[in-house]
Amino acid sequence: MSCKNNMICQNNIGCQNNTLFSWGLNSFGQLGDGTNINKNIPVKVISGVTGLFNPIAISAGRFHSLAIDSNNRAWAWGRNDNGQLGDGTNTDSNIPVQVSKSTGLTNVIAISGARFHSLAIDCSGQAWAWGFNNRGQLGNGVTGGSSNIPVQVDTTTGLTNVISIAGGGNHSLAIDCNGQAWAWGRNNFGQLGNNTTTDSNTPVQVSGGTGLSNVIAIAGGNFHSLAIDCSGQAWAWGRNDDGQLGDGTNFNRDEPVQVIGLSNIIAIAAGRDHSLAIDSDGQAWAWGLNNRGQLGNGVTGGSSNTPVAVDTTTGLTNVIAIAGGQTHSLAIDSDGQAWAWGRNNSGQLGDGTNNNSNTPVQVSGGA
């Protein structure tokens, strides 16, 4: 992989009249529908009157949500006690508010929600962060406090030309255009992957000593991290008490290890203590904690330290996208149908019930 000048500051995505939907817990307004009432079927996120038109990318944190519109502006809504909405206030919002541009964040091309902080990349390849910073997860050389406006992630350790970014619990991850993975923030379980368990408030390189290189995708769980290399091999590091690293053990790892039993992986995602992947045949896989059926293999309880196939008998095949929540999981099939499984106490499966499911259920068409 080489760093060619291929980051173009313009919007070339042909998106027209896109509509955002959300469902589940809404105690902080994180559904963005103008209420604070939980919903067990999808509802429309309020747009237009707030200025959010034609969303082209979305992400969710613990209790807040994020989007990019077709003008490459960043938006946020939900909980804001740590400034994770980035609008210059610490006031919760149940409708989208624009992330502040006062410090220079414009032309946003990627966005990611973490537990209580948020991350973005601009079209020059600069990484940005805002929100809680108790472990240095903003990556700006400071530990402690928070920021309710975006700050630049430090570049002095070498992180430039960022092409992908992801948030974990209290840590952050990025990939540069050379395929090098980087991490910063909390490191108590080795989730930074740099052969230590020492926190870092500036980006550090994820170790390649075990063979990880040419990284094309990353994801962050509460205390673990995931990656895919260009050969389709899945990797993991950090906390592993529930087998969320998928290496057949329950030992924490402070450098990347290969997830066993998988090949030709095209997408990866992390829940709080579980992990998810899609292979090139469109089969979804899961591993880690399964106390609420979040692995989707028809079992509730225990955990798995190796990947298990997500059940297909209810109709989930040809999976093209996947995501992890706290104790639930989500997927989209090639027909554009959304699916969910796991915990459903707040309606987060979106199937019109509040019943947990250990196999995939279709998300309702919404209100």
Automatic annotation (TrEMBL):
The keyword ATP-binding does not apply. Residues 152-325 form the RCC1-like domain. Keywords: Repeat. It comes from the Bacteria. It holds the Pfam family WD40_RLD. Signal peptide: none annotated. Residues 343-367 are annotated as: Disordered. PANTHER family: OS09G0560450 PROTEIN (PTHR22870:SF408), REGULATOR OF CHROMOSOME CONDENSATION (PTHR22870). This is RCC1-like domain-containing protein.
